[in-house]
Amino acid sequence: MISTTAASRLRPNRLARRRQSRVEHMRVAWIGLGAMGRPMALAAAKAGHSVRGYARRPAELAEIVSAGIPVTDNLFETAAYAEVACVTLFSEVQVREVVIDGGVLSALPTGSVLVLHSTVSPDFAQEVAALRGDIAVLDAGFSGGPDEAATGQLTLMVGGDAEALERSRSVLTSYGDHIAHLGPVGAGMTLKVINNLMFAANIAIARDALRLVDRQGLDLGTAVETLGRGSAGSMALRLLGRGGQPEATLDAIRHYLEKDVAIARDGARGLPLGALDGATSEFVK
Question: Catalytic site residue 192?
Answer without folding.
Answer: yes
